[in-house]
Amino acid sequence: MQNTGTKMLESALEIITKTAKDMRLSESKTERLLLPDAIHELHFSVKMDDGKDRLFTAFRIQHNNALGPYKGGIRFHPNVNRDEVRALATLMTIKCAVAGLPYGGGKGGVIIDPKSVSESELERISKAYARAISSFIGPEIDVPAPDVNTNPKIIGWMTDEYIKMSSRTRFGISNKMLKPLQGKQVQHDSVLRATFTGKPLDMGGTLGRTEATGRGGVMILKALLNKIKSQAPNPKKQTNSNNQITNKKSLDLGASNLEFLQPSTIAVQGFGNVGYYFAKIATENGFQVKAVSDSKGGILYAGQESLDAVEVLKCKKEKGSLAGCYCSGGVCDIKKGRVISNEELLELPVDILVPAALENVINGQNMSKIKAKIIVEMANGPVTEEAYEYLTKKGVIIVPDVLANSGGVAVSYLEWYQNMKGQTWTEDKVNKRLQVMMTKAFDAIWDKSVKKKKPLKQAAFEVAIERMLSAHK
Ligand code: NAD
């Protein structure tokens, strides 16, 4: 049976091929976009706690660096495989280009179940991986970050190991960059640290990174609603004496019935890093989050206003799951609510649906039951191709993952930038820069979408490919 990595790769290559065809690119140019620059398959041994050596297989795939150094996370998972890492590296190229970052795309992975090893084994495995990739990463070459099952602590171990191995004239720093730094060891280390992002704060990480993906998603959603508002027909001009709308033209994206706008209701699937911050920041921005869920189920909030994400998280931590929060601590004791399944959450009659957990959750089976008018893909690949086509034809606006969740890599870029310049920014400054980057990224995709009368996803891929091709020139 085909593994999910292979399916993921096929679908990434399919949309690039389709976009390249629409753009009338030559076969060789298309092929170049599909094939990665380099596939590194690595094998290394690590001494385990029982004194025996264990062999690990890992990858670093560098897809395309037309716009700048390869950029992408490292995941630790037993199902990591070459096709999956290649698919993710390819999508990182698109995401970085969509976000307007001076980066290409890469991805790494180690085949390991991190829960099956001790903390000290995990540290040795992380450091061994850092050694294995050290000759082809660097602040101007390839900049890894955390991904599934890796975190700032693991990235901190990798950064330490990388710096330990690197002498001043070795990996990743050009002579041009070194010149002004001569004799300044601190600045030199800061630049070397830029080899990884997602570091702990005391190792050169940036404020604002933890919230960045959720925050960026809310910024993109607001940018979308502003555009819709500005294009929405003016009711004064458009009603005749019988109060009938006379010139109501549908939006270029095909969306209809979007008069809801503010305050909009939202359901968020997934209450991890991305889902939690999305829910929290959306509420702070005037949206009404009505339902959230995690792997064990969700809660539907029946109060007039938004549910309190901070309170819900506190309760989840106490009870171990969201479903356990039914009738506890302000979620429904006071305001009424009920437990719902993950399937129910996706089918709620809310304005905006935010899948922020897993891939393929909106698919052939449930697409006809989706009632939201806007879907913001905060997880990677939560809407299958089949459901995407069906819902888009129905007039649902789907904000594609490569745009919606690009706030994370955008703030990673700001971390890299601060390290390269030896600076430390306030969280406010990071958030302001993120706002500028997200609005700019959204505007370019929206304009392309309107101009070409194409859904946002196709528009995003086209903008990304155009940027890569013009950089090649
Ligand atoms: P996380 O592990 O912190 O959270 C995942 C959440 O999803 C958890 O609350 C988990 O309980 C929930 N979940 C798992 N199975 C579920 C199910 N069947 N139904 C409902 N909820 C379920 O992960 P995260 O960092 O929040 O990432 C979520 C998604 O966003 C992933 O697809 C990830 O690739 C993507 N993403 C994350 C970032 C980032 O910066 N963290 C950036 C870009 C994309």
Task: Reconstruct the topology from this structure.
Layout: H1 4-22, H2 27-34, E1 38-47, E2 53-64, E3 70-77, H3 82-98, E4 104-111, H4 119-133, E5 142-146, H5 152-165, H6 175-178, H7 185-193, H8 209-231, H9 235-238, E6 265-269, H10 273-284, E7 288-294, E8 297-301, H11 309-319, E9 337-340, H12 342-346, E10 352-355, E11 374-376, H13 385-394, E12 397-399, H14 401-404, H15 407-421, H16 427-452, H17 456-472
Parallel strand pairs: 3-4, 3-5, 6-7, 6-10, 10-11, 11-12
Antiparallel strand pairs: 1-2, 2-4, 7-8, 8-9
This protein binds nicotinamide-adenine-dinucleotide.
Class inferred from helices and paired strands = alpha/beta
The assigned CATH architecture of the largest domain is 3-Layer(aba) Sandwich
Helical element count? 17
Q: Give the SSE string.
A: HHEEEHEHEHHHHHEHEEHEHEEHEHHHH
CATH fourth-tier homologous superfamily of the largest domain: NAD(P)-binding Rossmann-like Domain
Shape: globular
What's the CATH class label of the largest domain?
Alpha Beta
- Enumerate the strands of the largest sheet in spatial order, edge to edge or round the barrel: 9-8-7-6-10-11-12
Tally of separate domains: 2
Low-confidence parts? 235-257
Q: How many beta strands in the DSSP annotation? A: 12
**CATH topology label of the largest domain:** Rossmann fold
Helix content: 40-55%
Radius of gyration: 23 Å
Give the overall average pLDDT: 88
DSSP strand content: 15-25%
Catalogue the ligands: nicotinamide-adenine-dinucleotide
Distance between the termini: 41 Å
